[in-house]
User: What shape does this take?
Amino acid sequence: MALASLRVPSFAKINLGLEVLGLRQDGYHELRTIFQTVNLKDDIVLRRKRSSGITVECDHPDVPTDERNLAFKAAWELARRADIKGGLAIQIEKRIPVAGGMGGGSSNAAAVLLGLDRMWGLGLGPAGLHPIARSLGADVPYFLVGGTALGLARGDEVFPLWRQIAAQVVIVDPQRPVSTAAVFRRIDARLTPRENSNTIFRFVSRDLEGGWAFSVLSNDLEEAALEEAPDLAAKVKRIRRVLAREGAMLASLSGSGSTYFGLFDDPIRARRAREGLAAEGFDARTARTLSHGQYRTAWSRWASPGRARVRTR
Ligand code: C5P
Assistant: This one.
């Protein structure tokens, strides 16, 4: 059944560890990373419109609303492949930090693909959407899956982990956009091949033994990101101090930054960390991780026909 409009959630991710193994022939970098969804999200409304073409509206001034927007590209590409002729309005309510390493643009693109698949009744599902997703960006395929997942190759080969993490996350937005491409360029200037790097492997094998090993994880992009944004380094030092004081299991930059996060098993410690960071003037919030199952449930709850938020024609 084709729908006239649909409201879909677009969740953020953090990287619990990220290894850069080398430069690929296609100019991208070979990665190993652990992706994790958090329940911080943008909301996206998809609406069929009478006039032809695709329009994007967003309440955040730094998000482009023309064909540079990844959600626009996703809709355009899916409409082209599925031969859909009608017009479409995409409205994005932004809460995920922009250019913050939390995958906001990639998540929006995947949410538009999943939402339009349902709205237009295409029945492609995540597997059918995967080729379009990977053509849009390295992080987009992950958002078709969600939860705790291993990302390989460009980060676009995604494998859910057997055990899903359940934790509190304190997210700090230093409000300092960082260009992912620029951070990777800095990595090239200093890259020594790291094919033997094994922290992600150790993390995954400890998971299979039944225990998390957050202490082995680190983010290879962190140093380069702090070089790219030197004003960030002093802030990160202060953020890390508060997160460590409150007992974070892991404190790290997400992706290429500048969002910094702390992972906690105790909600009280997480709240204290947020309050401590807010007292130092940081924009900090608490969130929690979403498992693969919770991600799927959130999708079916938000984006299924017949709910109050969904109108049929
Ligand atoms: O794929 P996406 O457009 O999100 O990536 C942004 C930029 O990050 C790319 O243009 C590329 O410079 C860099 N990148 C990379 N290797 C990856 C992922 C991203 O070099 N695996």
Remarks:
- The radius of gyration is 19 Å.
- Confidence is low (pLDDT under 50) at residues 306-313.
- The longest strand covers residues 29-49.
